Amino acid sequence: MIERHVTRIIHVGPLPIGGDSPIIVQSMTNTDTRDVDATVSQIQALAAAGCELVRVAVLDMAAAESLRAIRDRIALPLVADIHFDSRLAVAAMEHGAQGVRINPGNIGGRDKLRRVVDAAKSHGVAIRVGVNSGSIEKDLLRRHGFPTPEKPHALVESAMRNIGLLEEMGFCTIKVSIKASDPMTTVSGYRALSRRTDYPLHLGVTEAGGLVAGTVKSSVALGILLHEGIGDTLRVSLTADPVEEMPVAYGILRALGIRSRGPEIVSCPTCGRTRIDLFTLSREVERAVATMKSNIKVAVMGCVVNGPGEAREADIGLAGGNSVGIIFKKGKIFRKVAEDELLAVFLEELKKMDQS
Amino acid sequence: MIERHVTRIIHVGPLPIGGDSPIIVQSMTNTDTRDVDATVSQIQALAAAGCELVRVAVLDMAAAESLRAIRDRIALPLVADIHFDSRLAVAAMEHGAQGVRINPGNIGGRDKLRRVVDAAKSHGVAIRVGVNSGSIEKDLLRRHGFPTPEKPHALVESAMRNIGLLEEMGFCTIKVSIKASDPMTTVSGYRALSRRTDYPLHLGVTEAGGLVAGTVKSSVALGILLHEGIGDTLRVSLTADPVEEMPVAYGILRALGIRSRGPEIVSCPTCGRTRIDLFTLSREVERAVATMKSNIKVAVMGCVVNGPGEAREADIGLAGGNSVGIIFKKGKIFRKVAEDELLAVFLEELKKMDQS
User: Fold this and answer.
1) What phi and psi values does residue B136 have, to the nearest 5 degrees?
2) How far does the CA of residue B223 sit from the closest CA of chain A (Å)?
3) pTM value?
4) Domains in chain B, start-ordered, CATH in brackets?
């Protein structure tokens, strides 16, 4: 169903982004980057949850200098997030950053940008041009107005101008993001940008909000874009522990049929017919599959009569009610068990299936 | 940006659905419908959270008979969800249901369906044709195979056949749903359906899963469809308290620029630059705005330097760090306050703005 927009391939460290490469799930730490232990520990938690590239804030020289120690202890490609200060960008690359996120236009003028680009070239570092509502140049805001869903021009023109600054210096290991907090401005902006450039695009909605509100905004905006074939890497920003971004990011990719990670659970919303504690069962099954690797489909249903039929596409499922539990496979009843043994028997069967 | 697919208008009780009417947010209780107090109490909680139409399961005659007592105590239009049993459908309507959800094809044959349709006509009741993966007729499954994103035909043909059964009896106060648990099957199914019929469409992903997983699936599938102008009413199914569906449903509509309900919060994901407990601040502000009615945009930012600029489209915002807090309006600093007074002063200012 999805025809992916053709982009160039760049590499961040060994990781390819763009072209036919998998759409990469990334995140950013919220630790103090100078605290190497805390930062490494968060990066390892992110990696275990599926993160494939990680960005850290570099606020001062001490943070830049800590990158080497961080990189030595992690397996993910490391990107330094830098605002305004070209010296920090150069230092970050000297200390092992495999990517930097900057706005070339506000790094302090052409000479300083030249130093950043030279360092990127000599260290083989990729640059993300990261434009957002707050970084748009004043003349573009005057000409185009603040970006709206109908007129994302200021964001797009700012990105193109920043790309141009790098290209003028012969640099093209670039990916691009234009983040807005409004999902529809994000959608129209990336659509316009994808018609203007073939650099890989980093998708995200900025300042998306808390777990549920942010999940909705990111899922709607990134869902529409990825379904149209736009986007080569994504970050789901939530005002929450960054590890919580991972199930959302993979959930979006899975919903679109693009990528999956581990078993999928379908569970019914419960209704007046439900005669079993489905919320608890569903949570327990979710917890059990979190560490599984296979792509089996698991159903948790509240209704012995309708459950197996409604979830017949599930590889394995349970349904319960009125003290009887059933386990079914592909819509056919596999075993009947007493309700109080249902979860244990089911998890055992699930584990066998995952490992087979 | 959105050109809405043209559908007929039907009414469920006094509530118009379809045409140019607002896209209606609905839900379903998970109480025992015979327990009138519990059901009414959940419906009132749903209404307070923004629910505009509510469905209850009718499993037996006692449940059907309790509908009158429920309807007497609620303000929302009431729909009865019925499987297989035409007598329950007729009884539900006699006891005040303003809509029924059935599958005309499995209600027990033409004579029984005739009795249901006659009751619907005489009581002015709308019928939702509710097709899902589990209700597809065997001959359609044989001919088209199980519905997939590429071939949703069995679902769509089943819906058209069920619509036809009602139309043959001169009944056309119909809305239609075709629910699959796979988001892309949902998307391709509704797209195909919207080309075949102009009855209003009820959108939903069935068995979507728990809070986060279900929110992602519903946001992606319903986001794509509503953005294409497809859908007249929606239900977000979560394996959770149905009240939790409401912020997700309104979040989807708001993300698409279709409808909003109360203030919107943007909040930054926090990064190594954050020097304030933003998760707590964000939660407190979310709690405060939940009861507000105005459509102001509120920003909660972790960074005094970048916050006001990045969130300049917000009507009011706060940012903090290193024991200084600021309150800004439309990107301009409005007040500086000590960090420990920031939340209280901000909430007071927010309340004034909401009421003005």
Assistant:
1) -70, 135
2) 5
3) 0.90
4) 10-255 (3.20.20.20), 264-355 (3.30.413.10)
